[in-house]
TrEMBL record:
GO CC terms in record: cytosol
Record-linked Pfam families: Glyco_hydro_1
Presence of the UniProt keyword Signal in the record: no
Protein name, as recorded: 6-phospho-beta-glucosidase
GO molecular-function term, one example from the UniProt record: beta-glucosidase activity
Keyword annotations: Glycosidase, Hydrolase
The family this protein is said to belong to: Belongs to the glycosyl hydrolase 1 family.
Catalytic residues of the enzyme: 377 (nucleophile)
Record has Hydrolase as a keyword: yes
Organism: Aerococcus suis
Listed GO biological process terms: carbohydrate catabolic process
Length: 479
C-alpha cells in the first residue's frame, strides 16, 4: 500500500517578502516588512517607522526572485514539485493599501508568475498575505487595530480572487495568524497586523482587538472568494507548536491544556465560525472591551474555512514550577512556564526537533476539526557550508525531513488523518523571518547571498535537492 494518496500535494513553500526583493519595483509601495532590520546574531529585528539611510533592510532585495523566478521555476520543475506555495505582496497590488484602483503592473507580475508555474506543471498555492501589509496602512490607520483596514484587506482579496480565479485554486488567508498571541514581542503584532502598542494601551487587549478584525477579514475574504469561484479551496494558516506537560502532575496537564488555547484560539473561530467560550470568559475576567459588533457573529459563521494549513517546526513543554511571565517568554514560539524538554535535541537556533510532535499535531487537529489538513511549512533552519568539493552536503536537513515524513505516513495510514500535502519551508534559501539573516537556511536550493547583503544571487543544488526529487517521484515511498 502506498504511504500517501496518489494526488498528494508535494511541494515547497516561500513568502513574497522573504523571497522576491524588488521592493519598489513596478509601482510597489513600502510594506511593514521593508522596515525590519536584520537582527545581529541572536538579537531581535528592529522595526523602523520608515526606511533610514545607511541601514540594511534584508527584504529589499531578499533573494531577488522578482528577477530570477523563471530560472527558479525550472529548478522546481526538475525537483518534481507539484505545488508551489507563495504569497501575494499586498503592497504590489495596493501600494498604499487605501487606493481605489489596484496597481496593474503588480497584478501583471503574479499573472506572469502563475502562468510560468502552470506552464511547468506546478500549481500555485497562495497565501493572501504572509506577514506584511502596506506600511501606509500601519502608519496612518494603526493597522488591524482599526476596523477600516478590514475593508482594505477585503478589497485586496477580492481583487486578486477575481484576477486569478482561473489560475489558483488553493488559497489561505493570513499566514500564521496565531503568531500574534506572542504579543509581548513587537515583531509579531507588527507583521501579523501592522500594529504597535502605545504606552497607555494594554498589549493583550490590543492584540485581541486586532485579532477580532483579522478573523472578520479572513471570514469576509472566504465568503467573497467562494462567491467568485465556488471551486476555490480556502484555508486558514496557523503555526502549530504543541505544548506538552512536563510530567504527569495534573496541574501540568491542565496548564498545557490551557496553554494550547494559544494555538487553538484562531482555528476555533475560523473553522467553527464562532468564538470559543474560554476566550469570552477570558475577556470578561480581564475586563477587555473587544469591539465585537452586531452582525459580526454572522460574518464569522459565513466565512469558515475549507481546510487547515499549518506550519510545524517544534514543540514546547511547560511546568507549573517554572513561573516565567509572558514578557520573559518572548522568543519565537515560546510560552510562559516553558521548560527544556530533556527528551529532545534542538537546532542551532534553539528550536526543538520533534518529529513525533508532527504526528501528535496531525491527530489533534484532525480530531478537533475533522477538516483536511495541509502541512504548508516544516523544515530545519541550519548553517550550510560549501565543502571543498564545491557541494553542500546537508544530511542534517534530509534526516530532519525523513523523520517528519515518516510520522506523516503513520498519521495517514495508521491514524487515518486526512492530509492533503506537504510543502517544506524555504525550498529555496530566503531571508529568515525572525532573525532577518540569510545564514539561517532552509532550502534545498542554495542562494549565494550573505547576512550583509553581499553575494551574486547564484543558485546551487544542495544534496537534499536530489533526495527530495526522489521522495516526490516515489510518492514518499523512498526516503
Ligand atoms: C514561520 C514563518 C515563515 C518562516 C518560518 C521560519 O514562522 O511563517 O515566514 O520564516 O517560520 O522562521 P525563521 O525564518 O525565523 O527561521
Amino acid at each position: 500500500m502506498s504511504k500517501f494518496p496518489k494526488d498528494f500535494l508535494w511541494g515547497g513553500a516561500v513568502a513574497a517578502h522573504q523571497l522576491e526583493g524588488g521592493w519598489l519595483e513596478d509601482g510597489k509601495g513600502p510594506s511593514v516588512a521593508d522596515v525590519l532590520t536584520a537582527g545581529a546574531a541572536g538579537q531581535p529585528r528592529e522595526i523602523h517607522d520608515e526606511v533610514r539611510d545607511g541601514v540594511y533592510y534584508p527584504n529589499h532585495e531578499a533573494v531577488d526572485f522578482y528577477h530570477h523566478y523563471k530560472e527558479d521555476i525550472q529548478l522546481f520543475k526538475e525537483m518534481g514539485l507539484k505545488v508551489f506555495r507563495t504569497s501575494i505582496y499586498w503592497a504590489r497590488i495596493f501600494p498604499n493599501g487605501d487606493e481605489k484602483e489596484p496597481n496593474e503592473a503588480g497584478l501583471q507580475f503574479y499573472d506572469d508568475l502563475f502562468d510560468e508555474l502552470l506552464a511547468n506543471g506546478i500549481e500555485p498555492v497562495i497565501t493572501l498575505t504572509h506577514f506584511e501589509m502596506p506600511l501606509h496602512l500601519a502608519k496612518t490607520y494603526g493597522g488591524f487595530k482599526n476596523r477600516k483596514v478590514v475593508d482594505f484587506f477585503v478589497k485586496f482579496a477580492e481583487t486578486v480572487f477575481e484576477r486569478y480565479q482561473d489560475k489558483v485554486k488553493y488559497w489561505m488567508t493570513f499566514n500564521e495568524i496565531n503568531n500574534m498571541m506572542d504579543y509581548t514581542n513587537p515583531i509579531f503584532l507588527w507583521t501579523n497586523a501592522g500594529v504597535t502598542v502605545e504606552d497607555d494601551e494594554n498589549p493583550e487587549e490590543v492584540m485581541y482587538t486586532a485579532a477580532h478584525h483579522l478573523v472578520l477579514a479572513s471570514a469576509l475574504a472566504v465568503a467573497k472568494g467562494k462567491a467568485i469561484n465556488p471551486e476555490f479551496k480556502i484555508g486558514n494558516m496557523i503555526s502549530h507548536v504543541p505544548i506538552y506537560p512536563n510530567n504527569a502532575n495534573p496541574a501540568n496537564i491542565m496548564l498545557s491544556e490551557e496553554a494550547m488555547r494559544l494555538r487553538y484560539f484562531f482555528p476555533d473561530i475560523q473553522v467553527r465560525g464562532y468564538y470559543p467560550q474560554y476566550a469570552l470568559k477570558h475577556f470578561e475576567r480581564e475586563g477587555f472591551n473587544i469591539p465585537i459588533l452586531e452582525g459580526d457573529a454572522e460574518i464569522l459563521a459565513n466565512g469558515t474555512v475549507d481546510y487547515i494549513g499549518f506550519s510545524y517546526y517544534m514543540s514546547n513543554a511547560v511546568d507549573i514550577d517554572n513561573q516565567t511571565t509572558h514578557d520573559e517568554a518572548n522568543v519565537h514560539g515560546q510560552v510562559p512556564y516553558q521548560v527544556e524538554n530533556e527528551y529532545l535535541e534542538s537546532s542551532d537556533w534553539g528550536w526543538t526537533v520533534d518529529p513525533m510532535g508532527l504526528r501528535i499535531t496531525l491527530n489533534r487537529l484532525w480530531d478537533r476539526y475533522q477538516l483536511p489538513l495541509f502541512i504548508v511549512e516544516n523544515g530545519l533552519g541550519a548553517y550550510d557550508e560549501i565543502s571543498a568539493d564545491g557541494q553542500i552536503h546537508d544530511d542534517y536537513r534530509m534526516d530532519y525531513m525523513t523523520k517528519h515524513i515518516e510520522q506523516m505516513a503513520i498519521a495517514v495510514n495508521y491514524d487515518g488523518v486526512q492530509l492533503m500535502g506537504y510543502t517544506p519551508w524555504g525550498i529555496i534559501d530566503l531571508v529568515s523571518f525572525t532573525s532577518g539573516q540569510m545564514s539561517k537556511r532552509y532550502g534545498m536550493i542554495y542562494v549565494d547571498r550573505d547576512d550583509k547583503g553581499q553575494g551574486s544571487f547564484k543558485r546551487m543544488k544542495k544534496d537534499s535537492f536530489a533526495w527530495y526529487q526522489k521522495v516526490i517521484a516515489t510518492n514518499g515511498e523512498d526516503l
